[in-house]
Amino acid sequence: MCVPAVLRIRLFPGARELLVSIRNLGLKCVIFSNAVWRDAAAYWRDFGALGIASLPDAVVSSVDAGVRKPHPGMFDKAAAAAGVPLDACIVIGNSEVCDIRPARSLGIRSLRVAIEEPPPAVSAADHVAGTLFEAADVLRAWCGQDSASCGPITPAR
Protein backbone atom coordinates (compact mmCIF):
# COMPACT_ATOMS: atom_id res chain seq x y z
CA MET A 1 0.00 0.00 0.00
CA CYS A 2 1.31 3.48 -0.79
CA VAL A 3 0.40 6.95 0.35
CA PRO A 4 -1.48 9.01 -2.27
CA ALA A 5 1.03 11.29 -3.99
CA VAL A 6 -1.43 14.20 -3.99
CA LEU A 7 -0.83 14.58 -0.24
CA ARG A 8 2.87 15.26 -0.85
CA ILE A 9 3.35 16.61 -4.35
CA ARG A 10 2.11 19.11 -6.88
CA LEU A 11 2.48 18.97 -10.62
CA PHE A 12 5.57 20.66 -12.01
CA PRO A 13 4.80 23.93 -13.81
CA GLY A 14 3.84 23.10 -17.38
CA ALA A 15 3.00 19.43 -16.71
CA ARG A 16 -0.71 19.78 -17.48
CA GLU A 17 0.08 21.89 -20.56
CA LEU A 18 2.56 19.30 -21.85
CA LEU A 19 0.01 16.51 -21.41
CA VAL A 20 -2.66 18.59 -23.16
CA SER A 21 -0.23 19.29 -26.03
CA ILE A 22 0.43 15.57 -26.41
CA ARG A 23 -3.32 14.92 -26.52
CA ASN A 24 -3.94 17.79 -28.98
CA LEU A 25 -1.24 16.47 -31.32
CA GLY A 26 -3.05 13.13 -31.42
CA LEU A 27 -0.14 11.32 -29.83
CA LYS A 28 -0.57 8.45 -27.38
CA CYS A 29 0.70 9.35 -23.93
CA VAL A 30 2.16 6.53 -21.85
CA ILE A 31 3.61 7.37 -18.46
CA PHE A 32 6.31 4.83 -17.68
CA SER A 33 8.09 5.11 -14.40
CA ASN A 34 10.45 3.38 -12.04
CA ALA A 35 8.75 2.86 -8.71
CA VAL A 36 9.28 0.90 -5.55
CA TRP A 37 5.66 0.61 -4.33
CA ARG A 38 3.49 2.53 -6.79
CA ASP A 39 1.79 0.27 -9.32
CA ALA A 40 -0.26 1.48 -12.29
CA ALA A 41 -3.48 1.54 -10.24
CA ALA A 42 -1.85 3.86 -7.68
CA TYR A 43 -0.65 6.17 -10.47
CA TRP A 44 -4.19 6.32 -11.90
CA ARG A 45 -5.58 7.23 -8.45
CA ASP A 46 -2.96 9.97 -8.14
CA PHE A 47 -3.69 11.28 -11.63
CA GLY A 48 -7.39 11.42 -10.74
CA ALA A 49 -6.66 13.37 -7.56
CA LEU A 50 -4.39 15.74 -9.50
CA GLY A 51 -7.08 16.29 -12.15
CA ILE A 52 -5.12 14.83 -15.06
CA ALA A 53 -6.48 11.27 -15.34
CA SER A 54 -8.08 12.01 -18.71
CA LEU A 55 -4.75 12.93 -20.32
CA PRO A 56 -2.50 9.81 -20.25
CA ASP A 57 -3.56 6.80 -22.32
CA ALA A 58 -1.67 4.24 -20.25
CA VAL A 59 0.67 3.78 -17.31
CA VAL A 60 3.53 1.31 -17.11
CA SER A 61 5.02 0.99 -13.63
CA SER A 62 8.21 -0.94 -13.00
CA VAL A 63 6.33 -2.59 -10.11
CA ASP A 64 3.93 -4.18 -12.63
CA ALA A 65 6.50 -4.67 -15.39
CA GLY A 66 9.01 -6.55 -13.26
CA VAL A 67 11.91 -4.54 -14.74
CA ARG A 68 13.17 -1.00 -14.24
CA LYS A 69 14.48 1.58 -16.67
CA PRO A 70 17.04 1.55 -18.25
CA HIS A 71 16.06 -2.08 -19.05
CA PRO A 72 14.80 -2.24 -22.66
CA GLY A 73 11.75 -4.17 -21.45
CA MET A 74 10.30 -1.01 -19.91
CA PHE A 75 10.55 0.77 -23.26
CA ASP A 76 9.04 -2.23 -25.05
CA LYS A 77 6.10 -2.29 -22.62
CA ALA A 78 5.52 1.46 -23.02
CA ALA A 79 5.55 1.21 -26.83
CA ALA A 80 3.19 -1.78 -26.68
CA ALA A 81 0.84 0.17 -24.40
CA ALA A 82 0.82 2.96 -27.01
CA GLY A 83 0.31 0.45 -29.81
CA VAL A 84 3.27 1.71 -31.82
CA PRO A 85 6.76 0.46 -32.69
CA LEU A 86 9.72 1.84 -30.76
CA ASP A 87 10.86 4.00 -33.69
CA ALA A 88 7.53 5.86 -33.60
CA CYS A 89 8.00 6.86 -29.96
CA ILE A 90 9.36 9.99 -28.36
CA VAL A 91 10.70 9.61 -24.83
CA ILE A 92 10.46 12.64 -22.57
CA GLY A 93 12.56 12.10 -19.48
CA ASN A 94 14.69 13.73 -16.84
CA SER A 95 17.38 11.06 -16.47
CA GLU A 96 20.24 10.72 -18.90
CA VAL A 97 21.00 7.20 -17.61
CA CYS A 98 17.48 5.78 -17.20
CA ASP A 99 15.59 7.62 -19.97
CA ILE A 100 17.72 9.28 -22.63
CA ARG A 101 20.63 6.91 -23.31
CA PRO A 102 18.49 3.75 -23.38
CA ALA A 103 15.94 5.48 -25.62
CA ARG A 104 18.65 6.51 -28.05
CA SER A 105 20.15 3.00 -28.04
CA LEU A 106 16.72 1.69 -29.10
CA GLY A 107 16.37 4.23 -31.94
CA ILE A 108 13.87 6.42 -30.09
CA ARG A 109 13.84 10.20 -30.36
CA SER A 110 14.36 11.74 -26.93
CA LEU A 111 13.64 15.00 -25.17
CA ARG A 112 15.39 15.60 -21.88
CA VAL A 113 13.68 17.85 -19.37
CA ALA A 114 16.06 19.53 -16.94
CA ILE A 115 13.49 20.84 -14.49
CA GLU A 116 15.03 19.77 -11.21
CA GLU A 117 18.62 20.62 -12.06
CA PRO A 118 20.48 22.87 -14.51
CA PRO A 119 20.56 21.69 -18.12
CA PRO A 120 23.48 19.32 -18.69
CA ALA A 121 26.52 20.47 -20.63
CA VAL A 122 26.25 17.32 -22.77
CA SER A 123 23.29 15.07 -23.46
CA ALA A 124 22.50 12.28 -25.88
CA ALA A 125 18.97 13.72 -26.19
CA ASP A 126 17.73 15.24 -29.42
CA HIS A 127 16.82 18.31 -27.39
CA VAL A 128 17.14 19.48 -23.79
CA ALA A 129 14.30 21.60 -22.43
CA GLY A 130 14.62 23.73 -19.31
CA THR A 131 10.87 23.72 -18.63
CA LEU A 132 7.87 21.56 -19.41
CA PHE A 133 6.41 24.50 -21.34
CA GLU A 134 9.50 24.40 -23.57
CA ALA A 135 9.13 20.62 -23.92
CA ALA A 136 5.58 21.17 -25.24
CA ASP A 137 6.91 23.74 -27.72
CA VAL A 138 9.57 21.29 -28.92
CA LEU A 139 6.96 18.55 -29.44
CA ARG A 140 4.78 20.91 -31.46
CA ALA A 141 7.81 21.88 -33.57
CA TRP A 142 8.71 18.22 -34.15
CA CYS A 143 5.17 17.11 -34.92
CA GLY A 144 3.63 20.07 -36.66
CA GLN A 145 -0.13 20.00 -36.21
CA ASP A 146 -0.73 16.27 -35.72
CA SER A 147 0.83 12.90 -34.95
CA ALA A 148 1.08 11.93 -38.64
CA SER A 149 3.93 14.44 -38.89
CA CYS A 150 5.77 12.76 -36.00
CA GLY A 151 6.55 9.27 -37.07
CA PRO A 152 7.97 6.90 -37.66
CA ILE A 153 10.86 8.93 -36.37
CA THR A 154 14.47 8.75 -37.42
CA PRO A 155 16.36 10.22 -34.48
CA ALA A 156 18.61 13.15 -35.31
CA ARG A 157 22.31 12.78 -34.63
Question: What does this molecule look like?
Answer:
With about 160 residues, the protein is of the alpha/beta class. The strands form two sheets. It has a three-stranded parallel beta sheet, sandwiched between helices. It has a two-stranded parallel ribbon with strand order 1-2. About 35% of the residues lie in helices and about 15% in strands. The longest helix has 12 residues, at about 130-145. Helix 1 (about 15-25) packs parallel to helix 6. The protein starts with 14 loop residues before the first helix and ends in a 14-residue tail after the last helix. Strand 1, helix 2 and strand 2 form a beta-alpha-beta unit.
Number of separate helices: 6
Largest sheet: 3 strands, parallel
Uncertain regions: pLDDT < 50 for 5+ in a row? 152-157
What is the helix content? 25-40%
Give the rounded overall mean pLDDT: 90
Measured distance between first and last alpha carbons: 43 Å
**Coarse morphology:** globular
> What is the tally of beta strands?
5
| Arrangement of strands in the largest sheet | 3-4-5
Class per helix and strand makeup = alpha/beta
Following the backbone from N to C, one meets helices and strands in this order, namely HEHEHHEHEEH
Global Rg: 15 Å
Strand content: 5-15%
Describe, in short, the structure shown:
The protein has 157 residues and is an alpha/beta fold. Helix content is 37%, strand content 13%.
